[in-house]
């Protein structure tokens, strides 16, 4: 019975590590997208100021 419990604990640990990894990846991707949007907004502002 302790072998089954140990295997279940390892599986749960792997699932938890995987979920933490996915959440970290999501936040990192969101940060990259926000930085990309900031760059585009700056480019638009520069373009508009050059039009005048």
Summary keywords:
52 residues, 1 helix, 0% strand, rod-shaped
Helix content: over 70%
Q: Shape from CA axes?
A: rod-shaped
Class by SSE composition: mainly alpha
Low-confidence stretches: none
Total helix count?
1
Query: Strand fraction band?
Result: under 5%
Report the end-to-end length measured between terminal Cα atoms.
Answer: 77 Å
- Biggest beta sheet summary: none
Mean pLDDT: 94
Helices and strands, in N-to-C order? H
Care to count the β-strands? 0
Radius of gyration: 23 Å
Tell me the quaternary state.
Answer: single chain
Description:
The protein has 52 residues and is mainly alpha-helical. The protein is 96% helix and 0% strand. It starts with a helix and ends with a helix. Keywords: Membrane, Transmembrane, Transmembrane helix. It comes from Pontibacillus salipaludis. This is Carboxymuconolactone decarboxylase.
Summed up, what is this model?
The chain crosses the membrane at residues 6-27. By secondary structure, the chain is mainly alpha-helical.
Task: Describe the secondary-structure layout.
Layout: H1 2-51
